[in-house]
Write a structure and sequence with these properties.
Blueprint: E1 4-7, E2 10-17, E3 22-28, E4 35-38, H1 41-62, H2 80-93, H3 97-109
């Protein structure tokens, strides 16, 4: 699993800068760029929670959605041979490539909520 922090449905990505000797990250899954940093793990965790709480307050004040909205379409890049196999599989099943990909994603994420990811 990738190094992440979670707080009230928000996910923060984590990184380390050796040059600056600090941890840093950003809140993922939102339309805005909200970053946080800390000198140690506890400082990073506290900065993340503070960033989430500040962002929530900002969204409430501005009457805007907190989480990014998704339109349900995205581009993927895969190896040509895998693409070919997926098309052939979808033809054999009598479904579209989109339906095959959707089924695969549903299978991968079933029984997992955002809170458990």
């Amino acid at each position: 699993m990738k190094d992440i922090l979670k707080h009230e449905g928000f996910i923060g990505s984590l990184h380390f800068s050796a040059a600056d000797d600090c941890f840093f990250g950003k809140i993922e899954g939102i339309d805005d760029l909200i970053t946080f940093e800390g000198k140690d793990v506890d400082g990073l965790k506290n900065a993340f929670i503070e960033a989430v709480e500040d962002y929530k307050a900002l969204c409430i004040h501005a009457n805007k959605l907190m989480q990014k909205s998704y339109k349900g379409s995205f581009n993927i890049r895969i190896a040509p041979e895998l693409h070919k196999k997926a098309v052939l599989k979808s033809l054999m099943l009598g479904i579209s490539l989109n339906q095959l990909v959707q089924k695969a994603i549903e299978e991968e994420v079933k029984n997992q909520s955002v809170d458990t990811l």
